[in-house]
């Protein structure tokens, strides 16, 4: 071993970090670790995935990425046994099982287990209607509401009555229609109390 290698090795045992990053001041015990770290700052990505050619600044990032391709799912949910190739995906999934709702709406204090759910909810408050119907230009704050609305314009009737085969463009229309068949009379006249299956 050369003298400089011995000196470098001894620094590890001293727990001192003599190799400092000139960009962010993070310190390292080994020069090689500093060199690897510097790749993050200069945007060099020398570690390339042989499957999809995506590049990474560190070998450990490439190794994590490779799980996606080889379909190895090392991270298993202890609640439902569903497996994931990335730990980050498992962590996100675990929120589904948890009653903890870390993402709180600042307007109404309603809480959500995942940030995307909160983001979707926020459209309701700020009255931003990002989803516009291409047929009538009516706007909606939620994409799900636009999709439901679009069925009204469509001649396609996806919801079929299992009794008489009549079809409807929306599930709510089918549900209303079903009252006719099951003889349930939910709508009562306020004057004479006679009941009807349809309003």
From TrEMBL:
SMART domains: ZnF_C2H2. The keyword Zinc applies. Keywords: DNA-binding, Metal-binding, Nucleus, Repeat, Zinc, Zinc-finger. Signal peptide: none annotated. It comes from the Eukaryota. Pfam families: zf-C2H2, zf-C2H2_6. PROSITE patterns: ZINC_FINGER_C2H2_1, ZINC_FINGER_C2H2_2. Residues 19-46, 47-74, 75-102, 103-130, 131-158, 159-186 form the C2H2-type domain. One of its GO terms (molecular function) is RNA polymerase II cis-regulatory region sequence-specific DNA binding. Belongs to the krueppel C2H2-type zinc-finger protein family. This is C2H2-type domain-containing protein. It comes from Diploptera punctata (Pacific beetle cockroach). The lineage of its organism: Eukaryota, Metazoa, Ecdysozoa, Arthropoda, Hexapoda.
């Amino acid at each position: 071993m050369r003298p400089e290698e011995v000196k470098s090795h001894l620094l590890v045992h001293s727990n001192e970090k003599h190799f400092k990053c000139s960009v962010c001041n993070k310190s390292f015990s080994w020069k090689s670790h500093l060199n690897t770290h510097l790749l993050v700052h200069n945007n060099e990505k020398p570690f390339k995935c042989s499957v999809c050619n995506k590049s990474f600044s560190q070998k450990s990032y490439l190794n994590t990425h490779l799980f996606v391709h080889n379909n190895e799912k090392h991270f298993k949910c202890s609640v439902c046994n569903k497996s994931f190739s990335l730990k980050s995906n498992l962590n996100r999934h675990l929120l589904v099982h948890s009653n903890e709702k870390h993402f709180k709406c600042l307007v109404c204090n309603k809480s959500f287990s995942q940030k995307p759910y909160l983001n979707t909810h926020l459209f309701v408050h700020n009255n931003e209607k990002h989803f516009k119907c291409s047929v009538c230009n009516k706007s909606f704050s939620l994409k799900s509401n636009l999709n439901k609305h679009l069925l009204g314009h469509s001649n396609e009737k996806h919801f079929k009555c299992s009794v008489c085969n009549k079809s409807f463009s929306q599930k709510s229309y089918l549900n209303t229609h079903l009252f006719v068949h099951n003889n349930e009379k939910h709508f009562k006249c306020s004057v004479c109390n006679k009941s009807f299956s349809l309003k």
